[in-house]
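Dear Dr. V.,

Thank you for agreeing to look over these. As mentioned in my earlier message, I'm a first-year student in the group and I'm still getting used to reading structure tokens, so any feedback on how I've presented them would be very welcome. I ran two proteins. I've put each sequence directly above its structure. The first is here:
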Amino acid sequence: MRVGQGGSGPGPHTPDGSAVELYEVTPVHGEDELIDGAIAPGSSVLELGCGTGRITRALTALGHHVVAVDESPDMIARVRVPSVETICSTIGELRLERRFDLVLMMSYLINVADDAERLRLLRTCAHRVRPGGSVILQQQTPGMLRGPVVMTSDRGTMVISDLEELPGGRQAATLTHTVGGRSWSQQILTQNLTEDQLATQLAEAGLRRTRYLTPDQVWVVAQPA
């Protein structure tokens, strides 16, 4: 497990503590339609951190051509879409010569609490997007992570506990998901970014922010500078 991160519960876990079997039963919540509306029909998409293919399958069904990347062989093994090329690799070490209409990096990966690692992620995005193409990032914004909180839905509960506010805009917390009588806990360590901080790191990677897809600024669109 990575420093400050870990996970417990049924089935395998990734290095950041994400539970593979939890991802496998997590539904799409409209992310596919949001992304689809921001890109041209039939776009080529490089999905970084694809997990078990929750969004991969949805974007493929909408007519896009997806290459899915994840560092976890347990995650990649569950994508199971014949038309999708899957690559097991960390994002920072991805070696791929092609460029894409869209590079997609979700799941708040941009909020990794390590500036050097974040820059590696963004440089991979910049190197793999074609001229005129787009990078879409999903970020955790300041104030989004609050606790203690219990959230319930028709599919289960999520509890945010042990929240710690750390220097430099970092936060640590425990997320506990219960679905169908099974529970998974994950310890997370995240870095909230101001608009200026994000803009600076995008520029270091050779990108510039062009717009937000949502008013809450969770979905960021960037393009090659």
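The second protein is here, in the same arrangement:
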Amino acid sequence: MTASIEIAHQPRVEDAVGRSLAAYKRYETHDLDIAEVEIRRFMAPGRLRACPGDRDGVDARAFYADTGSVGVGRMSYGAEVTVDRPAGSRYLGVAIPLSGHLRLWRGREAVDARAGKSLVVIAPQGRIVTEWSADCDALMLRVTTSALARAARVLTGAHEPDSPPRFVHQVLTLEQGHAVYSAARLLAEVFGRYDDVTAVPNGVLHQLSEHALSAVLLGLEHDLSRPTRPPYRAAPSDVVRSAMRMVEDETAAEFNVNELARRLGVTARALQLGFRRALDRTPREYIRQIRLERAHRELLAADATDGTTVTEIATRWGFFHTGRFATAYRAVYGVTPSVSLKGGTEEERPPRVV
């Protein structure tokens, strides 16, 4: 007997998120065998089977963009299908239904992930069987286990070279999986501004990848979520000063907290404690302040008549959500970024520290 577990209501994912990946089509086919072969190229091996009587209705489509370690895409089949993925994948996946529903089987129990309510975590370890409804269109986040292992070493200070954290297959509400849900949306939205991955600036690709890896490691349960290591010690003041110089010397957004920690030979947690002790703020807050200052200078120096845009400058300095950038900018400088770009038609107040 099958037990279906309903997930609490959450807001729907905007249709615009799905449309943003339209330029990254990988395939469109009515043949499940072709879809199965194509999926191996960017996701993971698995068997596709259409439900009885549904094979003639297959309309499989996939759109996918990837940074190497992290990728985001959209997938649909146009028919009720079962995806049977064997154990031993090199990827962790997160499937977020934009329409319809996905059903995750755990023995004889089925858990439904429905559009606007929940998501499915597809762990690298262990076989997983999922059923896609005919109207299911899902946003997919894919992260390599090798990248997770590297990012986990930075976060935990571990030294094992090939020990990625272990996750479990599960369905989470969008609230429970908010970090990875937001990271997947951000990836899709930023990639959607470009016609091809090669057009995305390398610094942007790096920032997006590191953000997604951190979201997975900090936002999902795994065997490293509760470390047994001794309490962290704060990074010494000279390490904090070195981190500050690295951020201040950037010519565009380059480092995040994990990357700074790795370059300086400390854990991300130690660096965070060091900043708290020395500056009474987190490294992330310091990075945000410096980059907001850099963006402010560029906006004032830019010539709007030559085609320079607020989005271009904001993206270069790691602010991928232009609306949030404008809000943060106005809170500090008293005007919107567009006013500064046009030469300042409103009075700017002295900047305040954020």
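From my reading of the second output: The CA atoms of residues 103 and 112 lie 4 Å apart. The longest helix spans residues 283-301. Does that match how you would interpret it?

Kind regards,
E.
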